[in-house]
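This section describes the prediction task in plain terms. A model, or a person checking by hand, is given the sequence of a single protein chain and must write out its three-dimensional structure as a string of tokens. No templates, partner chains or ligands are provided. The sample shown here is typical of the held-out split.
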Amino acid sequence: MTQPPAKFELTSSRQFPAWLAEQNASLAFTTYQAGKLIFIGTGPDGRLSIFERTFNRCMGLHAAGDTLWMGTLYQLWKFRNTLEPGQLAGGFDRLYVPRIAWTTGDIDIHDIAVDGDGRVVFANTLFCCLATVDEDYSFRPLWQPPFISKLAAEDRCHLNGLAMQDGRPKYATAISRSDVADGWRDRRADGGVVIDVDRNEILVDGLSMPHSPRMHNGKLWVCNSGTGHLGTIDPVAGVFNPVTFCPGYLRGLSFVGDYAVAGLSLPRHKTFSGLALDDNLARSDAEPRCGLVVIDTRTGDLVHWLRISGVVQELYDVVALPGARRPSALGLKTDEIRRVLSIAPAADAG
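The expected answer:
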């Protein structure tokens, strides 16, 4: 007998679609577990618009203007929106086309950013470094933590997060300071660090599986994933200040005005269990969720949510797409990629 297709269900707080419309923005997020890039926007009827494409183990995202970057199992993709302002295609106002892919090999790309010179920078988690692409090599290393003695394909500290400041890599997160193969798994509870890339020193330690450092309005925000807290870093005191407890394994962070949008995963995998998050959920009499939460950074209140159930249980990254109401993308699995064509302006013959 054939098995019924796995369910993928989305429910949201009552005002979540209206909030997206008010912000004139949409969201994109990845789930490596299900291999999906998913866009959340609003349709003409005011209801949620959901669009998804399949990519193998999609992870880190970065969005800027008409460009979207995404890391997958062994490639780094650059998408470009092919629609002009005011133009629609099938009712969608953005159509991200995968234009360029760098074949990096399976180096476990996590967070992605673009520096002031337009160069892509990413967390190369397998080799515990920040890196960029190279035409002749799998990657070009840019920086490694001071406690990593050599570049090796050993995922020693699980370097995962990257925050930019003034167009340069400024902060990185790692699960531990381990300098042996896969050593970070033994330090999940309290070995996490935030590293100042410029100064090449530890800014904060004692965190639990930190992810997704982001600069916003002059503050460094971090997901202390192993406890479920979103918070800020006090760089002078060298401490993490929790702002909001979120009911799930917190990972993926973007901002829309004064609001933070964060991803939640179910802590069912062994890597995510046995942490303070379990006790914090029990203390709050709460069950873990998978989905997105919207937090007012001025008050710390969790004001909107999107819950995901069914086949999708773990998310990695989320990005805001300002100015996009109903985005879409081309994938590699369907035939339509053959028929979407656009022509660049002709070069000036004179």
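For orientation: Helices lie at 16-23, 276-283.
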